[in-house]
Structure formats: C-alpha cells, structure tokens
Specification:
Elements (H helix, E strand, L loop, with lengths): L4 E6 L3 H10 L13 H7 L3 E7 L3 H11 L3 E3 L2 H8 L3 E4 L6 H10 L4 E4 L7 H14 L2 E4 L7 H11 L6 E7 L9 H11 L5 E8 L6 E2 L2 E2 L5 E8 L4 E5 L5 E6 L2 E6 L4 E7 L5 E4 L9 H15 L7 H19 L5 E2 L8 E2 L5
Parallel strand pairs: 1-2, 1-4, 2-3, 4-5, 5-6, 7-12, 10-18
Antiparallel strand pairs: 7-13, 8-11, 8-17, 9-10, 11-12, 13-14, 14-15, 15-16
Helix pairs in contact: 2-9, 5-6, 6-10, 8-10
Amino acid sequence: MSTTYRVGLVGCGRMGTTIDDEVRDRPNSKLFLPYSHAAAVVACERTELVAVCDPVAEKAETARSRYGAQTAYDDPEKMITNEGLDMVCIATRPSPHAPVTIFAAENGVRAIYCEKPLCNSMAEADAMAAAIHTHGAKFNYGTQRRYVRLYRNLREMIVAGQIGDLQAVIAHCGASAAQWGHTHAADMLLFLAGDGPVDWVQGSARFEETDWDGNRLTVDPPIEAGTVRFADGVTGSFVPAGGYEFEVSGTEGKLRTLSNGMGYTWRRQGEYDELHEAQGPEVPIESGTLRAIEDLVRALDEDADTQGGIDVACRSQEIILGLVVSHRADGARVTLPLADRSMSICPDHY
C-alpha cells in the first residue's frame, strides 16, 4: 500500500492558503489551480495536511478549518516537534525560510517545499543547503513553472537538439521586483539553460545608495535588465518587455512560451535561414504547485533527486543577488559565486 505523507504548513497567508480565491474566476485559472500550498497538499492523493501554523491565531484556525487539518499552531518548531511530519511547506515572508528549513531538516522532516524567494542572503542559502545535505532531506523550490509539463517539454526538446545548439535564453518578464518577481525569471532562465553553473552576471536595477542600511538593501528593487553567462557559453537575458514569456534560441530554431504558459511556438530554420512554424507535442496546462508536491512524493518514494533541489534554488537566488551587486558596482560584471555572502535584500516587512 502506498504511504500517505504527513504534511505541516508554515504560513497561513496568501501563498499558504488564500491565493486560489484571487485566480479562480480568471480565464487562465487552469494555469494555477490548485495554487496555494494548502490547496495543493489537499489535492495530492498521497499527502495529508495534518497541521498548520501561523503567528496570527485567527489565520491559523481559519486555515485549519478550511483545509481540514487537525491542529493549528503559532510556532513552527512546536508543530515540527509534535507532529512527526514527513513534509513541511513554508509559505511565509522570506526571513523565516532559512530558520524553518534548517530546523525541519535537523528534526527529521524528510521533505521541504519552500516558497520563493529562497531567503535574503547567500549566507542563509548556504546554511539551508548545508542542513539539507547533511540530513538528506528532499527539497523543492516554489518557482512553479519548472515542474509543469509545458516547460519540461521545452527543456526535453532543447536537450534532444530540436533547435540545434542552444545559444540564448530570454526572459520577457518586465522590470519586476528582484525577490518578488524575478526569482521566477531567474529560475526559468536557469532551467531552460540546463541548470548548469554560472560564470558571471551583469545587470541594472532601480535603487539608490540611500536604500542601503550597511550591507542590507532595504527595498526589493526592480531589475530592469540583466545578463547571465552560463559556464557552457549559453547567455541568459532579462529584458524589460513584459508578458511573462520565455524565448529559447538555438542554431537551428527557436522556442517561445505564450501568455504566461498557455502554449508555445516552435520555429525551425530552413535552407536559407528562414524560420518555419513546426508542430511540437501537445502538452497539458497544469498546476505547478501540485506538480511540485507530487515530485516530492516521488522523491520520497524512490529516494531520488527532486526537480527543484536546494542546489538549483541557491544558484537562481545567487543570480538575483548578483544582479543587484552588479548595479551597485556601476554595472560591472560580477563573477559567481559571490564573494560577499552576507549582502542581503531584506526590506523591513521581510
């Protein structure tokens, strides 16, 4: 008989429990639902939401009642200690991500799903990675696109050589906030480029020197543009044009997602360098949150790697922080890994 994994939720706010209500009536709602951590855990056939936690008691009790959990807590450490959890979902603001992840890994939790952004600094990311590797916990990062079939299909086409040798990956995601929006874009550039190491980044953001408090940036700045040079020579680009679409360019063709993942186009190069529309595999539109939870279940069942593990999450977080460091250095190229691990993006509300 298949194991049903016991799950606890930390953070009963928007991404934890209520964002489904915002998107339910949208024409593209099938891109998202189930969207919140709680809704995805309940929808997964192999997981049971047994406990929820929030420092605001009313939020915790509302979430417990809505999603059928047994117990509500105000302290994540108490929940983890008391409940014998297999999995913890973390849907708080960024600052608790590192301490909750570390405590969960150190106290027997076998799988962790952590909302983006990963954390506030690379020092925190390093500590999270050390705890997860030391204790053998499975980890997935809340950048949902990498788990769904449409984007995974594109990566498979790239690997299969359907557009020739990969040259560039472009994020058409606008001048989005570094931590709140471009964490998604950085992860997708990384994913489509093969999740390999990064040599350097270079970027432009919107902040002033007065926005710094020592080594802490007190705003979450829009990133206007940026370049990522992967170690294998592929270039990733953030461009200020919006639409949340991603383009992949190769020596023999191009792929591009449409309307935030509602579809994609594939064009192949002809005899005289012209590009012709090609028919690629049909793919379902599905919930990234649910697929991420299901992937953790698979990893637990098989004692296997996850699709969005901690090393990949750290790499995409470092891209974002590196672009901020680049702007502060007057747009200079910044070699990764970052030398300064303590620099943080941490507004007061984080």
